[in-house]
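Troubleshooting: if your tokenizer reports a length mismatch, compare against these two reference records.
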Amino acid sequence: MNYKPIRKTLGVTCGVMMLTLSATACDVTNPGPIQDEFLGDEAAQIGLINGAIRSIVNGYTDRAFDMELIARQIYPGGQIGAWGNPVHIHAGNVEDLYGANFTALHQARFIAETAIQRFTLAEASAERMWGAHLWAGFSYRILGEWWCDTVLPSTDPTSTEPSEYFPDTTEPYFERAVSSFTSALGFAETQEQRDAAYAGRAQANLWLGNWQAAFDDAALVSDGYLEQLDQDESESGLYNYLWEANSGTFRSYTTKFTFYEDYYLETGDPRVRWGTDPAYDLAVGSLSGFGPVPYKPMLKYTSRNDDVNIASADEMRLIQAEAVLRGASSGTIGEAMALINGVRTASVADVTDEDGYVAAGSTPLEPWTAATEEEAWTYLKRERRIEMWLEGRAAADERRWNETNAPGALDLPDWEDPSHPGYTPLFTQYERGPFCFDIPQSERDRNPNVPGIGG
């Protein structure tokens, strides 16, 4: 570890953490508000776990929408109002203090760690302990991928000490994630439970550069495993924002001008399926410097209820492949490409025409062939961006690859080039990046360890 915390002491007179989440934040709506002293009771335990999951769901897909724009996985339609994004996000730039939903994701972590404390005292079942540790782990993993800096609280939810601050690194989040998933494994009783814990730990180990550990964990995850966030149309905070913003009503982004526009027509890869809407030719907004944008909706999600992947067996195989390219296992191009193509050829190509999707097909996708390490890395990067398209992961991957100087090309459209059909001066007005969110002003104001901008 080469990071150092910035830590100060503060006299606190109320039982509230500096990531201001009081005990009442643990009241959950399913099965209804629960008195604090009863949170460890068996009947209330599932409510605490569901509360942690709900906080993740509530904070995930709208910020995933930002991340997909930053990663150029989608092209902005120009909408800045309802179900839109700020202009700087359209351009792929994250301004200082932009970090909405920081509190929601820390609330998820806080609720899960409250559950761990209460469940331990109540001698809860292994299943409940597994669930609490698992969702604490996923909370930390998401924070680590999406933020530039770490604000690390005590794992004791009753602590009133302000959280430590680690600038320019999120390794502490991933270390906490590894610890949480390891604890979850200690309580896992079924293969499905072990799959979830190994998958989360593999994701965190990849970020920490623990290549062999990431390979080993990913290899232990069963084929067909899938972990998803349960989106729900019952209230707007639980909608799948990636679908809602793309729906015919809002039309806030498009696949036009992205890598996936031509790639889908060339391959029929169903993982990046898009089409047209006969009722609408154009997105709702008007993109700065461009004007009305052609609307070609993605078809990966088709309703507010469509769940969003946060871990899968296919991702695990790609983690194995990346670890191999970094020296794990045999360290050979052949082993890495076998893993990459195992994911790729499991998909069956769609029938397409110039308007995108026509029908499901019957022919598997063609495998990639790599003769060099550079080519193997290019295909690894491409497959991760395809496999996890519209899941809010690509910007974080780009940041990780940049930080480690990973070889291989990235399929990024050059929207800064005036000759590109998607060009607008907006893309040169702002510098693209960073590929992570900033600590919001609210946290800077209440945590003496986190400096102000320029401080």
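Reference record two:
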Amino acid sequence: MAKAKTQTYMAKINSDGYLILSPELRKKLRVEPGDMFFVKPERKGIFRLAKAENPFEEPKKPAPKKPAKPRAKVPQVSASYQAGKKRVSGVVDRIEGNMVIVVVRDPESEDTIEVAIDRRKIKKTDLQEGDRVTVYI
């Protein structure tokens, strides 16, 4: 297996003792003005830099989620009403209390539909959004 090549960058120490990093390297390392670093000498002329993280600083919050689209009324499927139904595979979209909303593709019309299933009727016990399941429609 080939070893990945690493880029070598040039940095400069100015007359005030500041280490100057190129804009390209600062962007790649996500270094901003004011960031602090730990320095560990390895051997003559070689040292490591590690960005210092403030343990009291709150972590950056992830971008807010997009508002959910209004959901259409979802048909209920009863396990006792499986005669004459088609078994299709789908993905769990969301879990609302004891109901699991599964997104499936209707085999007849090729439309994507949501089907609500009683959670107790699904064999998988540790169900999560994104899981693949099989339902009858």
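Descriptive notes for reference record two:
- The chain has two domains: 12-51, 79-136.
- The first strand starts at residue 12 and ends at 13.
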